[in-house]
Amino acid sequence: MGKVSTLVSSTFIVLGLVVNGIHSWNYEDEDTKGVFRWGDQYPECDGLNQSPIDIETARVQVNRDLTVEIGGLDETHETWIRNNGHTAQLGLLDSPKPNLTGTAVNGKLYEFAQLHFHWGEKSDRGSEHSVDSVFYPAEMHMVFYRKQYGDIETAVKYKDGLAVVGVFLQNSKTNNPNYDPLIYAVRQAPDYKAKSFLPSEITLRQLLPRNTQKFYRYSGSLTTPPCDEIVTWILLADPVEIGEQQLEVFRHERTNYVSMRSGSNRIDHNYRYQAPINRRIVESSFNPRISFSTPLNARAIKPFYKNVFFPSY
Ligand SMILES: *[C@@H]1O[C@H](CO)[C@@H](O)[C@H](O)[C@H]1NC(C)=O
Ligand SMILES: [Zn+2]
Fold it and tell me: Cα of 64 to ligand 2 centre, how many Å?
């Protein structure tokens, strides 16, 4: 059985934000509500099984029996996107929703809830996870909740409540037309709490890399408060390419506070710093020691941990 987080108010929306309509946390480096101080209000953010992490391929355990099956990837959906103050979050209007199962989640059935993005000010950084300390410009999270719990608010109370598919976004010179409807909608809704429909229906397949069978799996947490340690992470190894111009649209989303770092109310970065892996083991469905392509513009950055030092920019 999982446990009930007493800190979570009834208005809490998973991975989305908002406790009683006030921003109680942010991505600032040196704010009392900032990314290094989330644990003050949300103790689980200081837990031992937090996300994101760096994937050290030399220490990954290859497990050829790991599978992930996502159902409904090719079905088209009427889709909306909302700026929740921390990210651009996409939801599907119509049912049935896509689902996820496989040995990677011990054969349990999960249902699609939402997807959203994490990005950085520039394309040298922005993903939350990294592979051998190499970051990508952005990362997409497709959030699924365990269907038997009925809804996501209930599911987050259980250890096996969520499965999140993480997808690295690599920048390219040319735009990815598969992302055009989504980017168009993000551009239409730059303001805090703004919502817009995508101009055409999309499939989830459109947003994924061709190969979804090469992935890493580990147990971790939400990467936003309240940081519940209830997530089976499925991180796809292959990135999907999107245009640098398309990435820039995310960086012009706005929130309702002014960043001390940039002096503007743009959501110019929304990634959490990494957590130590501690006793956890990362498994992979493939041998990562054989094929790993280094992203185009990414550079290796040693991960830094909470309370070790403040990064300077
Ligand atoms: C998963 O989704 C697919 C596509 O909508 C559907 O055909 C299938 O029945 C679903 N699986 C379960 C177990 O509900
Ligand atoms: Zn996320």
Answer: 27
